[in-house]
Amino acid sequence: MGCNYIKKGRKIPCNTGVGGYKNVFFVEYVSGLIPNLLTDSSASDIYSATALEFGDVSASFLFGESTTKEVYQYELKNTGDTYDETSETDENIGNTIYTGELKLVLPKLDKESINQVRLLTYSKSFIILETYSGYFLLIGAENGAILSQSVKKLGGAMKDFQGVELNFKTEERIPFVYLKDSAVATLKLNIADSIQPI
């Protein structure tokens, strides 16, 4: 059986792109909440099997029947916050896997923040990145994201960085997907209380 090939070319974009992330949002991962994006017909607005194209994720796929699931927002400002996603195809096995690595830098080592980081190490999350370009990207859509490493840094001099570096990993059959405007609105309505480090 032949595989689908690309459908469109690509032009040089306008000089309006910006990098970086404004916020990261954590939502507790629930297995099976998002349908099988590659086979489930109810996911047709996210994934077109005939065109091999991904669309946008609606609120129902992220929150299920509940619209009151808590969302935890972490504001970002460090240029060390990065997300890289790599696709690897094995022709012998006949599969493609997307591996994501998210690195976050949280300044200041306050007690409450460190406790929340500790809790993240025990859990899987849906992670949504808000970019400075205005996109909301969902990573870990099928299998969730895990906090694979956290590094607390105290610094040696007064001007040195002190805070925590977080490294999350994902392993998916699909790339990251975009949130629909309705899902973004639901996301913002469910933001829980935040810590204010002093």
Specify the overall morphology.
globular
Query: In terms of per-residue confidence, which ranges show pLDDT below 50 for 5 or more consecutive residues?
Result: 48-53
By DSSP (H or I, 4+ residues per run), the number of helices equals 3
Helix content: 10-25%
Please provide the count of β strands: 12
Structurally, how many domains make up the residues?
A: 1
Radius of gyration: 18 Å
Helix-and-strand structural type: mainly beta
Strand content: 35-45%
Residue-averaged pLDDT, rounded?
A: 84
Distance between the termini: 60 Å
H and E order: EEEEHEEEHEEEEEH
Largest sheet: 10 strands, mixed
Q: Briefly, what is this?
A:
This protein is mainly β and 198 residues long. The protein has three helices and twelve strands. The strands form two sheets. Strands 1, 4, 5, 6, 7, 8, 9, 10, 11 and 12 form a ten-stranded mixed β-sheet that branches. Strands 2-3 form a two-stranded antiparallel sheet.
Please render the helix and strand layout as text.
Layout: E1 21-28, E2 47-48, E3 53-54, E4 56-57, H1 59-63, E5 71-75, E6 82-90, E7 95-107, H2 111-121, E8 124-131, E9 136-139, E10 145-153, E11 163-172, E12 177-179, H3 181-189
